Structure formats: structure tokens, C-alpha cells
Amino acid sequence: MSTALNARPRRTAPRGFAFEPIFRALCFSAAITLLVTLGGVIVALAIGGWPAIAKFGINFVIGATWDPSPDHEVYGAAGPIIGTLITSAAALMMALPVAGGVAFFLVELCPTFLRRPIGTAVELLAGIPSIVYGMWGLFVFAPFFAKYVEAPLMTAAPAGSIWEAVFSGIPNGSGILAASIILAIMILPFMAATLRELLNTVPAAVRESAYGLGATTAEVVMSVTLPYVRRGAIGAVMLGLGRALGETMAVTFIIGNSHGFPKGLFDSGSTIASTIANEFNEASGLQSAALIALGLVLFVITFTVLALARLMLRTQAKG
Amino acid sequence: MIRTFIAAAAATTLIAGAGVAFAGNISGAGATFPAPVYAKWAESYKASSGAALNYQAIGSGGGKKQIIAGTVDFGATDKPMKPDELAAAGLQQFPTVVGGVVPVMNLPGLKAGQVKLTGRVLADIYLGLIKKWNDPVIASWNKGVALPNMPITVVHRSDGSGTSFLFTSYLSMGDEAWAKGPGGNDAVNWPVGLGGKGNDGVAAFVKQTPGAIGYVEYAYAKQNGMNYALMQNKAGKFVAPMAANFAAAAAGAKWGAAPGFYLLLLDQPGANAWPITGATFILMHSKQTNAQTGKDVLSFFDWAYKNGDSQAAALDYVSLPDPVKNLVRKSWKVIVGPDGKPVYK
Fold first, then answer.
1. Handedness of CA A145, A151, A154, A157 (dihedral sign)
2. Is the residue at B130 inside a domain?
3. Residues of chain B found within 8 Å of residue A68, distances taken between Cβ atoms
4. Superfamily of domain A56-318
5. What angle separates helix A286-318 from helix A78-104, to the nearest 10 degrees?
6. Based on the domain organization, do B91 and B109 belong to the same domain?
7. Measured between alpha carbons, how far is B191 from B182 in angstroms, rounded to an integer?
8. What does the angle CA B243 – CA B247 – CA B249 come to, to the nearest 5 degrees?
9. How many distinct structural domains can be found in chain B?
């Protein structure tokens, strides 16, 4: 550091030199604040959740009984953990192709006069508060989904086949699949907007050379622009996944909120965030410790997902 | 979650008309069930006395925490604290208004009040033992009613709530298996069914699911014209959920014999008593650090007892019978200031 500074050519009375240390200190303290906050959150979650973790140990994450009644007080969060992973993964699988399609269309195919309205629409979608998605999901989407998707699929499933199990549940528009779809709609604009920005960073020369060689739009996207933005694209996906993992209100309204393992796509389940949202208000003692420990579990899951993404990027970069 | 928390708190604060510094202003926090009537009372009280009430509907559990921590002048809870808990925390407790919990159903072709249920039947439905509407047990109580051959979808509250506490406590009274299993609490380990968030969440699932049964607060069932069941009360009579029947349950209760007014109005005697009735309560420190604040809080509730009945009725709450109000007023004598003298005379 100091050698680098010394190596700089000397300037006489550089403008703004006095401000430089202040600017550095400001940036440094901003970064430190972030780290300290993050560390503080982890420590607070660990301390707050410790009574539950100490009491239940590994059963807290693999146990499937969540019983807050004061006479029993057993907290095993396997149901919410599985529910979180399933809904987030399903939402990602549904949203990613659509987000990609939106981004490719906007960058490669869209007539210029349409580009701005569609882009704005995507950004607007990202700005809708999640409670609105929850209400819309419960009162508008659920009845529609029950009538036109769930009921037909359930009646169409041959008796005794695997489909009967997959499509089991209560056909009222709530449950794991419905929650995943709502989540997909919610994370779609984030991913689409980020992907579009990324695709815009591909130098026109690169893209035009590919077209010049006679590549079709699909070929340009697949073999030129997509590889170019690969690293950033994984970041965009993680952004969406992160939001899906932590999404609370919209899911709470529609997932059906039962703590067991979901048996089928239309069965009700719960997620970590929905369980915390549902019970934290009235929780005390061990129950609130268990909910805080759930928060810690969600933190760990999110961290693991991000770490895996980094790992994927690194191996890809090497290969 | 925290964002909604703040939004809800802010909304309530706005309703209660807080933020105006004025002598005699009081603050409270807790149960969501009585929040509309407290807000209404606060509005009228402010008009007549100039003193504002800032009530934050953060939930009964939160209300207890806040009053114990001393961050508010009074707490409010739907789930009364037991006398020993009150003594340990140095709190006094008294009821304000009464409400009821109503089983609501979605049964195509059947009108409100056509289906009769008992506590035992309701518990067996919520335990998942009775799975169909035309089950012989339900049919035996409903002779002449064309019960559909339809699976029962059980809907319950997903959030911890006083409504669930009353409902599950009632199921515990009527059914040994429920008492030993899920038990009575504001959140339990539901054996079957799906959870809706809040009264509107439960109502939405019930409305969207033919064959569903759920439970909501009376005001909610009434304002939404939901299909309710008649319940058998302790006297053996099947009664409808209506204000007069909640009042009957409150009137029959032996408040005088209940220390700390710890009384669940479940399954009360009385020919017309609705069996799933409950009061909502206020918590205050027995020893007030500021005598004037204690007096201000009690003056507000005294005013509400005197003048608030019609406003409560308009919002579908049931007022306490007058003898109970007088009992409560007498109980205020133990709330003392730093000098050891009662703050309310």
C-alpha cells in the first residue's frame, strides 16, 4: 500500500488531495458497517436461537414435528426447511426460462419502439410489494388455479399412477405449487431486468461479427452473448433465488401453512419465512428461540447457496 | 416481516390519532381482536376529553412483553394471564369486551344455521377422525338435513392468535383426545388441514373450498355473511352465534370468583350461552411509577364502560354486563401509585 503511494508521481498541490483520506475513510467505514451488521445479525440470531438449538440439537433441522403448544414444545423444522427449498427451486425453474426469454427478446429481437414500454413494465413488476402478490394470489389467482389447473389435473390423473400422488392435495388453489408460481412471478422481473442489463454489456462488435458470420439469433444468443455474460448471469439467478428463499408475505398467504412434509404438489406446506411471520407475533420463551433459530437456518441456507454459486463460477472460470 | 410489522403498527398509530403531544395521553399495545373498538373509543374519548390513546395492535404476546418491559401504559391480551403469572409479573388484569368464535363452512346447498355441531364432533373433525360431511356421527345430530357426501377440508389460523386459543381451548374441553393431543394454545400442532393467515385468510380458503370448515371471529363471520354452524351449549341447546348469546355466556360466568378475572367464557351454563365465547383483557402494573398515568388509563376505560357500549355493538363486540363492570371498577383499587395510594378513586 505505502509503496504504491510512494511510487506515484509527485504533483504539486493536487486538487482535492485533502479530501482523499476522508473519502477513503468514508468508503472503508461503509464497507465495515456492512460487515459489522452482518456479523451482528449472525451473532444475534445464534444467541437468540441458542436455547432451541441446545435443546433439540440436530433434531431441530431433521425433526418433522413442530408443536408450539406449551405442554409439548417440540420444534423440528424439517417441514419448513424442505418447503423453502422446494418452493424456491421450483420458482427458479419456472422463472428462469421466462426471464431469459424476456431479456433476449428485449435486447436482440424487440422493435425499438416496444423496448421502453416492456422494459418499464418489467421494472414496475419488480416494484410491487409482496403483500400485494399475496393478496392477489389468495383472492384472484387461487380460485382460477383451483378451477382450471388443479381440479382438471387431479381428475385426469389415472388412479394408482404416480401422477395421482404428485397431484394430490386439496384443489382450492393453495399449496406448494401455487406458492411456487407466485414466487416465480415475483422473482421474474428481478432476473429479467438484471439479465437485460447484462446482455446490453455485450459489445456490439462481438454480436455483429457473429451475425456477420451468418449466425441466427438463436445461435448468437447461445454461443456468443450467453457465454459472454455467464458469470453475471449466475449472479442474476442467485439474486432471484435469494429473494425466493426469503420471501415471506406472498408465500404465507397461499402456501397453506401446515408444518408437515408436503405429500403432493397441491398439498399445503410451509417455508421458514412463512413460519416466522405466522408465529413470531405471539411467540415467547422457547418458541421465539426456535423461530430465531429458524432465521439462522435460513441464513445458513442462503449463505450456502451463494457459496455454491461462487464455487460454480470458479470451476467454470478454470475450465 | 418486519416491514409489515412496522406498517401495521404505523397504521394503528394513525387510526388511534397519536403523535399529538397532550397531557393525559396514554399508550397501549397488544391484541389485534379488540383494536377496532379501542380505536373507536379512543377517537370519541379524544373528542370529549382531549386525551389521546396510542394503541398498537401488535398481538397479545407482544402486548404482554411490552407491558412487562414497561414500554407502554397498558397491555392488551386475548389470552388471559393466570393469577400466578399476574402475581409474578406484578400485573393487574381486567376484561373490556366480549367476542365469540364462530365455526364457518362452505356447504353448497345448505344455509347458515342448518348444520348443528357439538364440541365433540368439532374436535373429531379437527383431529381428522371425521372425514366426510355425511359421516354417521354428524348425521345423527342433523336429522333431516341433506348432508353432502363431501370430504371435509379443515381450515385453521396459521398465525398465533387469541381466536385460535379460544377455539382450541374449547375443543380441549369437549374432547379428551384433543386435550391430550394438540391442546389449547394460540398456536398448536394441527393434526390436519391447512392454515390461512388471519381471519381473512381462513375465510378465503373456506369460501374457495367446497366442503371446508374453518373458524373466524364473530364480527368477521357476520360482516361477510358466512355460513355458520349452530353449536350445542352446556345446557344441551343448539344456539346461533349472535351478540345476545355471547352476552348470555358473559352474564352466566362467575367473574367474582375468578382472581385476576382469569376466566374463559367457554362452554358456560345458561340456556342461550354461545359455547365459544371469550373476553379480551387489559394488563396494567399494580404499582404505577407515575400515579397520573395510571389514573389516565383507568379514566379511559371507566369512560369506555360508561359510554362505549353502543360503539362496541356497532362493531359487533359485546359489552360486559353492568355487574361485571362494577366488579372491575372495584378491582382497580389495588392499582396504586408510588405513594401506595390507589390511583383511581
1. negative
2. yes
3. 160, 185, 187-189
4. MetI-like (1.10.3720.10)
5. 40
6. no
7. 8
8. 120
9. 2
Contact call for B189 and A281, based on CB within 8 A: no
pTM for the whole structure: 0.83
B264: in domain: no
Same domain, B11 and B120: no
Say how far apart CA B281 and CA A190 lie, in whole Å: 46
Task: Return averaged pLDDT per consecutive 10 residues of chain B, 345 residues in all.
Answer: 48 43 76 90 91 88 89 92 92 93 93 93 95 93 91 92 92 92 90 90 90 92 90 94 90 84 90 93 92 91 93 90 90 89 83
Enter the DSSP assignment of B80: P
Same domain, B45 and B181: no
ipTM: 0.80
Q: How far are the Cα atoms of A185, B212, B296, B343 from residue A178, in angstroms, in the given order? A: 11, 19, 50, 56
Which of A66, A276, A282 lies nearest to residue B1, judging by beta carbons?
A276
Give CA–CA dist A167/A265, Å, rounded.
Answer: 6
Domain with B91, as residue range(s), is: 2-100+277-334
CATH number at residue B291: 3.40.190.10
Cβ distance B194 to A66 less than 8 Å, yes or no, reads: no
One-letter amino acid identity for A139? Answer: F
Cell of B52: 389521546
Are residue B133 and residue B165 in the same domain, yes or no? yes
